[in-house]
Amino acid sequence: MMLLRKMLRDMHRGKMQFVSIFLMSFLGVFIFTGIGGEWYGLKMASDDFYRDTNLADVWLYGQGFSRKDAEAVKAVGGVTEVEPRLSVKTVGEQFDNKPVIALIVIRDNTISKPERIRGVAFSTAEDGVWLSDRFAEAKGLQPGDSLTLSYEGTTLTKIIKGTVMSPESVYSSGNGDLSPNFGNFGYAYLPANSLPHEGELPATELLVDTKRTDDAALEKEIADALGGKYSVYLPRTSLESYAQFQNEIKQHQAMGSVLPIAFLAIALLTILTTMTRMVSIQRIQIGTLKAIGFSKRSILLHYVSYGFWLSLIGSLLGALLGPLTLPRLFYPSMSAFYTLPRWEPAQSPLFYGMALMTVLVSTLTTYFACRELLQGTTAEALRPKAPLPVKRGWLEKAAVWGKVGFNTRWNIRDMSRSRIRSLMAVVGVLSCMALLVCAFGMRDSMNDVKTWQYDEINRFTAQLTVEEKATPEQIAAVQTAVSGEAIMESPVELRVKGVKSSGLASITDQVTLLGATDPSRNEMKLPADGISISYKLAKKLNVRMGDEIEWHLYGQEKWNTAKIAAIYRTPVAQGITMSRAFYEQQGSDFRPTALLTAEQVDRAYLGIASVWSKSDLIDGWDQMTDSINIMVVLLIFFAVLLAIVVLYNLGLLSFTEKERELATLKVIGFSSRWIRGLLLTQNIWLSVLGILLGIPAGIGLLALMIHTAGDSFDMMIVIQGKTYLLSILLTLIVSVTVNRMFSRKIRSVDMVGSLKGVD
Questions:
Q1: What integer best gives the mean pLDDT of the chain?
Q2: Per-residue model confidence as pLDDT tens digits over 383-439
Q3: Half-sphere exposure of 669 (CA within 13 A, CB side)
Q4: Mean of the pLDDT values across residues 711-729?
C-alpha cells in the first residue's frame, strides 16, 4: 500500500511525463483499432454479404448460352455450381432522365443472390420485379409501385415486389457516370417466368462456383468444355465492384498500420527517458526503501508498475474508444459510393494483440530502464549521485572548438551527455514532419491528378453519353448540332503470353478534345496505326513498345493481335487506345458511346442518355475523394498532437536534468531571457535535424499510400514547394511554441536547492 501511494504521488509530481506515456500508448492503440475497426468492419460486412449471397467465383460472358453449356461447364473438375442468366440494359421509361436499368433475368437463384432490403424476398415463382434499393430510394419508389422498362422496342411493366442489394454491385457506376449516381443507373431482377417468352431463354452470362484458384488452368478447361463459345472469362478478383472495394480496404489498412508505429516508438522512448531519470533522482528514496526492508525485487516491480499501469490503461481505452469513434468519420462519405447491408465497425483479435503488445513492450522497456540503476548497496544509494564527468569528444579536441561561442559549446556538450533525450526529440520532430509531408503531399498529389485528368487530358466542355438504342441518324444529328467528336469506350480483355488483364478500350474518331501524355508526363500524340497502352497496365503486363498483345472487347469472342505502337500515361481508366480506322481494320464496327464537345450543352437530345459538363465531372471527383481528405485531416491533427506531447515532455525532462546547470548560469549572472535563448538554440538544432530526416520519411510514407491505390489508378508523387514550406513552418512553430511554454520555468529555478551537491 505504501508503494502504491508513492507511485500515485510520483505520478502527480511528474504528471506531464506520465500523461505523455499514457497519451502515446492510448493514441497508438486508438488509431490502430479505430482505423482498423473501420476497414475490418468493411471487410467483415462485405465478406458476410458475399458469403450469404454466394457471390460467384467466375463470370463467363457470351451470347446464347444454353442449359447444355451450363452442364458442360459444371462437369469441369472443381466446379461446384453453374447458373445461366440473361442480362440486358433497359431504359426506365417513366422517368424524365431515362435512367439505364440493368435487367437481370434468372431461372435459378443459387449464385450471386440478391439480398432483400424492403418488400418480399426474391422468388423465381413470383411475377414481378425486384429493384435495386439505392435506385428505388433515389426515385422515391416503394414495393407495390410499378416499373416500366423498354428494350429494343419492347416495353415491359411490372409491379415492384421488393428492393434488393446485389453482391456484384457494392460499387457500381454506369450510363457514363464518373462516380455512382443512383438516380441515373440501377439494376433489377426478374424471374424468367415473368417474361413473355416461349422455350429456353438464351443466357448471356454463366455464373460459376468453384473452389479452384488456378484461373489459367480452369479457364482452359472451361474453354475446352464450351468449345471456345464465350467472350470473357472474369474471375472474382477482376470484377470491378469487388476489386475497387478491396483496394479501398487495403488503402485504409495501410494507413492504420503506419501511424501507430510512430506513437508506439515515442511511447517507448518516453518511458525509457522518464523512468531512467526518475530512478536516478530517487536514489535516496530507493536507498531508504532498501534500508527499511524492501527487497530489490519488490522495488523493481514497483518502478516497473509505472510503465505497466499507464500503458495498460491507455491501451485498453484506445482499444475500446478507437472502433467507436474513428469509423464514424469515414462511413458517411464511403456510403455515398459503396452499397453494403450494414456499416458497422468490427473488433478483431488483432486489436487486443496490439494493446497487449503495447503493454508488454512498455513494461519491458521500463524494466530495462530501471534494472541497472537499482543495483548497488544501500549505502551507495543513500548518497546523492555525483554529476557525470565531462569527457572531451573529438569535436572538442579540434582547432575549431576554440572559435565557437559559449552557446554552441554548451549545447553540444549537453546533447552528447543526453543522447537518448536528443534522439527522442529528433524522432518526435521527424514523425511530425513525415506525417505532415505525407498528408499535404497526398492533397497535392490528388489535386495534381485532378489537374492532369481535367485540364491536360480532358479538354472538352461537355460529354454526352449516347444511349445504347440510339440510331446512327440520331447520333449524327447530335454530333452536327454540338460540333461533337465521337469516341467509343468498352471494357477490354488483354492477353500477353497467357497472362490476362482487363481495362478500358478507347476508340477515337479524329478526336482533338482528348489529350495524351507520355510516361514522363509530357504532351504526346498517339499514333493512328496500332494500339497504345497505358503506362501502368504496360508495367503490370511487362510489355514495351513493339511487343505484341492480344485483345478483344467484352461481348466479342474473336481475339485480335496487334503491336504496341505507343505507351501513354493516364491517372484513371487504365487500358488501351486506338483510332477508329485501326479498329475497323480488325473487322469491327465503330459505334460511339459518347460525344465530346467544346460547347456548352444545356438541352436534351434524342439518343443522348446524359450530359456531363466538366464541372460536373470535377464535382464527382471531389466527392469521390472525400474519404482521402478525411485521412489528410487526421494525419495533420495527429502529427501536431504528437509533436506537442513529445516536445513538451522532453522540455520538462530537459529542464529537470539541467536544473543544476541552469541554476549555476543564473548564479554567475546570466539572465533568464538569455538562458531561454540558450535552450531554444538546442531545440532548433534538433528540430532542424528532425525536419531534414522527416522529409524523405514523409515521401516514403506517401509512396506507400499511393501504392495501395489499386491497378486502375496511376497517381504520381507530387509535392509542391509550398507544401514543404508549410510543413517546415508548422513543425517549427509547434517546436518553438512548446519550448517557450516550458522554458518559463527557468524564472522559478531554486538556485540554493539545485546547487546542493555531494557532501
A1: 82
A2: 655 555 556 666 666 666 666 777 777 777 777 777 777 887 888 888 888 888 988
A3: 0
A4: 88
CB neighbours of 740 closer than 8 A, spacing ≥ 6?
A: 676, 680
Give backbone dihedrals phi and psi of 102, rounded to 5 degrees, phi first.
-75, 115
Phi, psi of 510 (to 5 degrees): 50, 50
Q: Are 485 and 599 in contact (CB under 8 A)?
A: no
What are the phi and psi torsion angles at 206 (to 5°)?
-120, 120
Cell readout for 82 is 453453374
CB 31 within 8 Å of CB 355: no
- The grid coordinates listed for 275 are 523512468
Give me the sign of the Cα torsion angle 487, 488, 489, 493: negative
- Apex 551 CA angle, 549 and 556, nearest 5: 160
Phi-psi region of 153 (alpha: psi -120 to 50; beta: other; left: phi over 0): left
Q: How far apart are CA 191 and CA 47, in angstroms?
A: 26
Q: Is 155 exposed, middle or buried (0-12, 13-18, 19+ CB in 10 A)?
A: exposed
The residue among 153, 155, 181 whose CA lies nearest residue 97 is 181
Q: Give pTM, 2 decimals.
A: 0.76
535 confidence band (pLDDT: 50, 70, 90) = very high
Q: Is the Cβ–Cβ distance between 37 and 322 less than 8 Å? A: yes
Whole-angstrom Cα distance, residue 186 to residue 181?
9
Which set of grid coordinates corresponds to residue 238?
Answer: 477482376
Say if residue 290's pLDDT is above 80. Answer: no
Residue from 503, 501, 618, 490 nearest 572 by CA: 503
How far apart are alpha carbons 451 and 56 in whole angstroms? 38
Q: CA separation (Å) from 109 to 63, 86, 208?
A: 20, 13, 13
The DSSP H or E segment spanning 151 is strand 146-151
C-alpha distances in angstroms, 565 versus 16, 333, 372, 548, 654? Answer: 65, 41, 70, 10, 65
Q: What local confidence, expressed as pLDDT, does residue 431 receive?
A: 84
Query: Residue 647's closest CA among 125, 23, 114, 150?
Result: 23
Name the strand (E) or helix (H) holding 548. strand 548-553
Q: What's 667-687 look like in SS3?
A: HCCCCHHHHHHHHHHHHHHHH
Report CA 580 to chain centroid distance, whole Å.
38
DSSP 738: H
Q: Which long-range contacts (CB under 8 A, 24 or more apart) does 218-226 make?
A: 218/58, 218/76, 218/78, 221/76, 221/77, 222/58, 222/60, 222/73, 222/76, 222/79, 225/72, 225/73, 225/75, 225/76, 226/60, 226/62, 226/69, 226/72, 226/73
Give the model's pLDDT for residue 304.
Answer: 81
Q: Which residues touch 377 (CB under 8 Å, ≥6 apart)?
A: none
What are the pLDDT digits (tens) for 448-501? Answer: 988 898 888 988 998 888 887 788 899 999 999 999 999 999 889 898 987 888
686 contacts 422 by C-beta, under 8 angstroms? yes
Q: Which letter does DSSP use for residue 525 in this model? A: -
Alpha carbon of residue 570 to chain centroid: 20
Q: Which CA distances in Å does 357 have to 62, 268, 352, 382, 724?
A: 53, 12, 8, 36, 35
pLDDT at 14: 63
User: Residues with Cβ < 8 Å from 166, sequence gap 6 or more?
Assistant: 53, 112, 114, 115, 132, 187, 189
The answer to whether 356 and 34 have CB atoms below 8 angstroms apart is no
The rounded distance, in Å, linking the Cα atoms of 77 and 546 is: 39
Percent of the residues in the chain that have a pLDDT greater than 90, as a whole number: 27
Which helix or strand (DSSP H or E) is residue 118 part of? Answer: strand 115-119
